[in-house]
Amino acid sequence: MVVYMDVIWLLNFIVDVMLLWITAIIMKRPISKWKLLLGGLIGSLLIVMSLTPLSAYAGNPFIKLLFSFVMVFTVFGYKRFKYFISNVLTFYFVTFLTGGILIGVHYFIQFDFQLQSSVLLASVRGFGDPISWLFILFGIPIAWYFSKKRIETFEITTIQFDQLVDVMVEINGVSIQVKGLIDSGNQLYDPLSRQPVMIISTQSFRNELPMEIIEATEHSENFLQGKTELPSEWSERVRFIPAKTVSKGNQLLLAYKPDQMIIQKDHESWNVQKALISFSNHALSSEDVFQCIVHPKMLTGISIKSVS
């Protein structure tokens, strides 16, 4: 078997640079391209060591750990101990994640590692079964892209769930309990009273609302033109809210004054006295994670209790 050490070194250098790059993306660290390349070069020196009398030390876990510290220090620097250790641990997380993806794909597709031609065989940083360098060369960018997209999805999901609240609304004997998303972009106010407006999807409780309310929600222009009448107990609660949407441009939304509104987040809850609700017949979340859009001003008051 012919072993091309220059190719092994180049492959190891590229892999180290990509792992450091993913670490920077996850940690949101500003990095210099030259430092990134230098960090990868330092990591690839382990391959060079394997050709010297120091080859016995090249596979030592403590030597690998030392090289990792130097690589992370070179790319990200040292501001404080917690900052440095976080970078190191994230670097190892990315390394094991990427290696695990490659090994998982290998066993999934049953890739033939016993190639009959004189193709270089290498290992992934000294762990696991031998893996073709061609497989790694093409697999690492794919694993990097997959990891990056998954991490971005996890970040969005985490941010979204950090902004979720439990909402309980009572209006004219109808009790509504839904999950709400705090949306800083929601700037809907009643122009007269300056009360914030919450948007609630009727998908999960439309059978509990009067048919006139559902009709007015789906075709608000009919109510504005006098073609649809609301029950008296609902009509006295109606407010008209000017809004601008991408699909319909400027329009008037129908909003209602609830009897009670309680918003709960973590171990706190708010009894919102001044607020309006507007119904929507559309699902607000494609995955049904939340059913209403909460105006951020509704949580600016003092919480009324702590929930144990």
Give the N-to-C terminal Cα separation: 67 Å
Percent helix: 40-55%
Give the spatial strand order of the biggest sheet.
6-7-10-5-11-4-3-8-9-12
| pLDDT < 50 runs, ≥5 residues | 113-131
Provide a brief overview of the structure.
The chain has helices spanning 5-27, 33-49, 55-58, 61-76, 81-109, 133-162, 211-218, 220-224, 232-235; strands spanning 121-124, 127-132, 164-171, 174-182, 197-201, 238-245, 249-256, 260-265, 268-271, 276-280, 292-294, 305-306. By secondary structure, it is an alpha+beta fold.
Main attributes of the structure:
ten-stranded mixed β-sheet; 9 helices
Set down the secondary structure blueprint.
Blueprint lengths: L4 H23 L5 H17 L5 H4 L2 H16 L4 H29 L11 E4 L2 E6 H30 L1 E8 L2 E9 L14 E5 L9 H8 L1 H5 L7 H4 L2 E8 L3 E8 L3 E6 L2 E4 L4 E5 L11 E3 L10 E2 L2
Parallel strand pairs: 4-11, 5-10
Antiparallel strand pairs: 1-2, 3-4, 3-8, 5-11, 6-7, 7-10, 8-9, 9-12
Helix pairs in contact: 1-2, 1-5, 1-6, 2-4, 4-5, 5-6
